[in-house]
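Sequence design from tokenized structure. All designs in this work follow the same two-part layout: the structure record, then the generated sequence. An example of the structure record is given first.
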């Protein structure tokens, strides 16, 4: 990320991408971000201040071009660096809704789902079940039946699930159920401990020591067709080495399966490539990551003289994280002399729980005054009844006024999907922007939506209201 005009280094311009050829996981603002003649930020050809006037705030603004570019970079990089077949699947937990699924489906990606709800959303978006992979460490029997009925591939996580699925498959009309096995690879990586999954002390996947027992079990279950192996080591990872190590471990397991006459034709290396939330983050590009993983699989397969499997990767954050920003309206201000100045916005931990959950850092710009010099250090707080509801501590911003549009960057992954109604605040609306058009993809939740699931038992309706 370079700054185009040095005189504007000390302004909102500093986060503008300089080229649309960048790797989407390395930009702070979406690839189409520009500043227009009114000094306002535009994304996908839409002026953020105008979007807020039209759709209200907080507002998730998702840039279609950045999302599509990330999909294409993944797909093309696999074509370029891997000689076998490959399939990129979107980890839909990052942001699952109909429009996002449609865009990603149209780019030819598959989908990783982890619940009946994500599976339902993906199917309703029109995705072919042949490209859906169902994850989860505690799928219910109903979820497994649903997955079998719609014929997606099930990534089996543990013994209970394997046995439940075996019973369901034996009764099912389908000839056999396609499964993969998730294993815990025992690979450490440097990321927040809540989002590390590959180390042995993890709730996900079979312990590799159980592998032979599982293979043995599968040889006696013709209604379970084990086509592949899977492992995921964690999220927001900047190193390439752990994924290269994982590739070798997966290929070793694939070889072991041969001893049981199981033919493993697919290896899934999980997701995990990080994105840039602040200048300090330095993830490899999508292309660099794919190259490292693809080459590691190829060389391990050559070493063991195994045919190349279909290689699957399931990124979430690096596909959608940088494609979206959240626009808030600035409200109250509080100066605590010699300590800090707070400015509060009209959202917070309910639309972005990542700072309070993982101490995640973010950057922001004031969208209606992009060239204004950065003269203030302020703490951007949310509107929730919780002191920890801070979106950015010590943000460098121009001086702000109530009504300014503050835009927090890189909010596409795990923001909407982890949003809540804490304090009975409705979830924001989301718009998809593309070539000057903004389309609503998620409606703002209003007061009535907040009551939609509420039930009032008859005896409370009819109860005597008097307190006497
Ligand atoms: N595959 C599996 C099995 C996963 O568990 C995950 C993420 C992914 C793929 C996608 O990983 P990604 O490419 O997005 O790093 N809520 C946390 C992140 C939790 C990640 C959960 N699993 C956050 O906001 O940072």
């Amino acid at each position: 990320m370079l700054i185009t005009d040095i005189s504007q280094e000390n302004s909102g311009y500093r986060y503008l991408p300089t080229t649309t050829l960048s790797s989407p996981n390395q930009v702070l603002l979406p690839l189409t971000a520009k500043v227009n003649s009114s000094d306002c930020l535009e994304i996908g050809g839409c002026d953020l201040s105008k979007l807020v006037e039209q759709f209200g705030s907080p507002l998730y603004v998702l840039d279609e071009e950045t999302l599509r570019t990330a999909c294409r970079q993944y797909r093309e990089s696999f074509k370029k660096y891997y000689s076998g077949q490959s399939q990129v699947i979107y980890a839909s937990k990052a942001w699952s809704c109909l429009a996002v699924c449609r865009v990603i489906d149209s780019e030819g990606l598959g989908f990783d789902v982890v619940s009946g709800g994500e599976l339902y959303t993906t199917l309703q978006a029109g995705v072919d079940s042949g490209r859906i992979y169902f994850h989860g460490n505690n799928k219910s029997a109903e979820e497994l039946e649903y997955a079998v009925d719609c014929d997606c591939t099930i990534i089996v996580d543990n013994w209970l699930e394997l046995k439940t699925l075996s019973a369901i498959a034996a009764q099912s009309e389908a000839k056999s159920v396609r499964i993969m096995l998730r294993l815990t690879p025992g690979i450490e990586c440097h990321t927040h401990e809540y989002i590390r999954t590959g180390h042995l002390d993890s709730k996900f996947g079979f312990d590799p020591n159980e592998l032979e027992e599982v293979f043995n079990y599968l040889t006696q279950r013709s209604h379970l067709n084990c086509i592949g192996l899977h492992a995921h080591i964690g999220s927001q990872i900047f190193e390439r080495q752990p994924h290269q190590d994982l590739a070798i471990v997966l290929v070793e397991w694939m070889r072991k399966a041969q001893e049981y006459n199981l033919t493993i034709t697919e290896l899934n290396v999980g997701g995990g490539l990080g994105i840039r939330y602040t200048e300090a983050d330095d993830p490899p590009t999508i292309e660099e990551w794919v190259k490292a993983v693809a080459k590691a699989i190829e060389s391990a397969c050559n070493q063991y003289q195994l045919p190349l499997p279909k290689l699957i990767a399931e990124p979430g954050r690096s596909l959608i994280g940088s494609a979206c920003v959240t626009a808030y309206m600035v409200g109250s201000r509080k100066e605590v002399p010699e300590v800090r100045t707070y400015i509060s916005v009209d959202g917070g931990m309910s639309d972005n729980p990542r700072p309070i959950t993982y101490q995640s850092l973010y950057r922001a710009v004031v969208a209606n005054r992009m060239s204004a010099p950065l003269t203030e250090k302020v703490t951007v707080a949310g509107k929730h009844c919780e002191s920890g509801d801070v979106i950015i501590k010590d943000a460098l911003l121009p001086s702000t006024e109530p009504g300014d549009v503050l835009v927090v960057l890189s909010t596409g992954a795990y923001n909407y999907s982890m949003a809540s109604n804490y304090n009975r605040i409705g979830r924001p609306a989301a718009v998809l922007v593309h070539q000057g058009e903004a389309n609503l993809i998620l409606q703002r939740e209003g007061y009535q939506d907040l009551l939609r699931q509420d039930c009032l038992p008859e005896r409370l309706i009819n109860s005597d209201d008097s307190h006497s």
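The CA atoms of residues 3 and 9 lie 6 Å apart. We note this feature because it recurs in several other targets discussed in the main text.
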